[in-house]
Amino acid sequence: MQTYLSVQTADFDIASEIDSLKSRGAGALVSFVGTVRDSSDDASLIALWLEHYPDMTEQEIGRIIKAAQARWPLTAVRVIHRIGRLSPTDNIVFVGVASAHRDSAFEASRYIMDYLKSAAPFWKAEETARGKCWVDAKEQDLEAMARWEA
Amino acid sequence: MKLVYFAWVRDHTGCAEEEMSLPKGITTVEALAMHLASRSDAYHKAFHNVNAVRAAVNKEFATGDTIVSNTDEVAFFPPVTGG
Predict the structure, then answer these.
(1) Structural domains of chain B, with CATH
(2) Is A83 on the interface with B (CB under 8 A)?
(3) CB contact under 8 A, B59 and A53
(4) pTM
(5) Maximum C-alpha span of chain A
(6) Which residues of B touch A116 (CB under 8 A)?
(7) Which end of chain B, C or N, has fewer beta carbons within 10 A?
(8) Could B81 and A93 be called an inter-chain contact, meaning their C-beta atoms sit closer than 8 Å?
(9) Is the Cβ pair B81, A116 closer than 8 Å?
(10) Tens digit of pLDDT for each residue in A97-146?
């Protein structure tokens, strides 16, 4: 299986990331792109700040990819997660999965995203006119991850 | 040992990392967090609510009863919010 993972400040090109998932054995490519919304709960968002724990992040994402690979017959996985200061509409995260057939690709992409939300050491802060505020973890994200372990 | 802080835990401690000698008698993550909470008002804010803080020992997620030693890197941070 072809895997690629990167934690980076730089943007990524969605089309070329999807293209690089292709192979002769892959009949299904599924991609998810997370982007910065222009509003937080109650205020207009100026920027989203993302920080992470270097090395541990890559290690945990690597484990998530391996677990997905053990669960579904995948031909390629690409995960790119940005860090630093991002503006509304900026790309945050790319998850791309390729498989022979669509069911595995759909499910594995969802699985990887659900774990990225709650099992990789990233932290988000929202910058609004009132200042910078750390984002609380959401119960629904933990539940989304727990569903895969049921 | 090396202590590393992220997100609002770091906002309270005022530093991203620091070196410290593990005090005698402290052997677990939870005991270490309680010790740190007693250091100052700012550290108290970071560590008084053990349910709000998560930890990693040598870059592996840990729990309150995970054993710590003087050669470890221990990180404290809020629940993660990736994706």
Answers:
(1) 2-77 (3.10.20.30)
(2) no
(3) yes
(4) 0.95
(5) 52
(6) 82-83
(7) N
(8) no
(9) no
(10) 999 999 999 999 999 999 999 999 999 999 999 999 999 999 999 999 99
Measured between CA atoms, the residue of chain A closest to residue B82 is: A117
Q: Name the residue in chain B with its Cα closest to that of A132.
A: B8
CA distance B46 to B5: 10
For tokens 């005090």, name the residue: B23
ipTM (interface pTM): 0.95
pLDDT tens string A20-77: 999 999 999 999 999 999 987 777 999 999 999 999 999 999 999 999 999 999 999 9
Candidates A55, A81, A137; nearest CB to B81: A137
CA A32 to chain CA centroid, nearest Å: 8
Q: Sketch the domain layout of chain A as residue ranges.
A: 2-147
If you write DSSP's letter for every residue of B7-26 in order, what string do you get?
A: HHHHHHHS-SEEE-PPPTT-
Q: Do B77 and A137 touch (CB under 8 A)?
A: no
CB-based contact A9:A84 (threshold 8 Å) = yes
